[in-house]
């Protein structure tokens, strides 16, 4: 089974995570997928294969050299985003000649380079698309396929010398819980790479500092016919609060290292309303200032409307740069591997987060490498086949170069 066939098989599993269930994994489909992967890893011939109660899968490809080499790991996640359905995914391979791709003629859903100019980079290539009714699931089933494909390739090609390699697949990364039960000691690596990036060449060791903020408003409902000077409408309180945050610091107004406040949920009645934000910034100082701004605005709201507003603020993860950057050999190894394969490394900050961010702060330095997909979390997601293949080849090359680089130390 080649890496594309693996990916096309994996996207048929419904593994959409759900932050409301309070379970681990958060959805039963992730367990089903994890158990299928365990079967495949046994068929490939990996060792020390395990799946725990929370559906974390780990396995080992033993070293085939007597050299003392650092143990390295590769990690991907089982779940797909809750932002859009991952059920009944219908992938289709398109030989892209340029222009628009009609995903659904019936619903007039079109993947167009007018909206997504990056499509032009893949003219002449095969790409995997959806039918426009679901996401594709390249985030991160492309990463899963690339890792397993690489382990299978190394197992079948013993002439490629490598040290001991550990692999892991985690649940619930998309809801920020991918490392809640990750056993770093059991994984037992000196460093690892998440295979969870986007376009070909991405190599990332900086990510956002991240927090969630839930602001709740309590109103007073009175019959509208006699509401004068009595009613306090919680919906309007929420709208007023949202208007105080700077428009230029919304996701749609930011790029690069610029942080943001993202209003991603609203529920409300006259009596009670709630708005939920995610707060992001690469700078720890600006991140802390953003959280302080939320607290200040809540105080201001309560000054105007006493006892009306409460804030639930929770840190989610931090910028891995401070952990990974001192270990430059980890980045150099990945950079060299890509370059030797004719891939131009693109070192950029992640405008998001990965399991690697939290793993780095748990003692496992863990930068992020491309899996190949684009337009994650929505109906316009697509995966260039060549990019997926190069992701797998990069893993193989890292394993191979780890031998020569360790000899040079």
Q: Could you describe the 3D structure shown?
A:
- The protein is of the alpha+beta class and 409 residues long.
- Helices cover 31% and strands 22% of the residues.
- It has 10 helices and 17 strands.
- An 8-stranded mixed beta sheet has the order 1-2-8-3-9-16-10-15, covered by helices on one side. Strands 12-13-11-14 form a 4-stranded antiparallel beta sheet, covered by helices on one side.
- The radius of gyration is 23 Å and the shape is globular.
Compact description:
With 409 residues, the chain is α+β, with helices and mostly antiparallel strands.
Break the fold down into its secondary structure elements and pairings.
Layout: H1 3-10, H2 28-44, E1 47-51, E2 57-61, E3 72-77, E4 92-95, E5 101-104, E6 109-111, E7 126-129, H3 138-156, E8 165-170, H4 184-187, E9 191-197, E10 202-204, E11 209-218, H5 234-244, E12 260-268, E13 272-281, H6 284-304, E14 309-317, H7 321-324, H8 328-340, E15 346-347, H9 355-361, E16 368-370, E17 383-384, H10 385-408
Parallel strand pairs: 3-8, 3-9, 9-16, 10-15
Antiparallel strand pairs: 1-2, 2-8, 4-7, 5-6, 7-17, 10-16, 11-13, 11-14, 12-13
Helix pairs in contact: 1-3, 3-10, 8-10
- Helix percent reads 25-40%
Strand segment tally: 17
Main sheet strand line-up: 1-2-8-3-9-16-10-15
| Biggest pleated-sheet summary | 8 strands, mixed
Morphology: globular
Treating each run of at least 4 consecutive H or I residues as one helix, how many helices?
10
**Low-confidence spans: pLDDT under 50, at least 5 residues?**
none
**Spatial extent as radius of gyration:** 23 Å
